[in-house]
Amino acid sequence: IFISGNFRTRVDIIRNELDIAPGDRVSPKRILEAQKNLRDMGALNSVRLKTVGLKEKRDAMLAALAKEMGDLCSWSHPPGGLFIWVTLPDGVDTDELEALAAERDVSFAHGWEFHIHARREPFIRLAFGWSTVPDIHEGIARLARCLEQVVAEAA
To answer: If phi over 0 gives left and psi between -120 and 50 gives alpha, with beta otherwise, what is residue 118?
Structure first.
């Protein structure tokens, strides 16, 4: 979360309201109470909060997928979130794909891990939240080479 804008409330007022010192344990209830109190006193009225970078990372992953895997797979186009779901070609062994990808320092989550019945389906979930844009491009390129190899071996 990035904070921008004119933060008109004095820092000591906020510290007093939160009553939290570095290293203190904080319960969710305490955070919610402090958040409500700050909101009620208008402390954040001049501040705009926004998520920085996720849209750019999502767009980078979508572009990399189109460039590297456009003729092999299809994928979701999420309006938000942290993940993209990729539909693999029929017959792809996701365990083999995972092993090859791991050799190239690339990881993904198997779609079956999220299936209510853990049924093996041709889906993988890619995360973009923690990666840098250059790492996303490189990772998708590496994953594409792995997928091409698995598809060629299955043919």
So the answer is: left
Cα separations in angstroms, 13 against 18, 92, 95: 9, 58, 55
Residue 5: pLDDT band with limits 50, 70, 90: very low
- Kindly state the helix (H) or strand (E) to which residue 31 belongs, with its residue range: helix 28-40
Contact between 32 and 18 under an 8 Å Cβ cutoff? The reply is no
The C-alpha atoms of residue 88 and residue 123 are separated, in whole angstroms, by: 6
Rounded Cα–Cα distance for residues 119 and 121 (Å): 6
Amino acid letter, residue 133: V
* Helix or strand run (H / E) with residue 153: helix 133-154
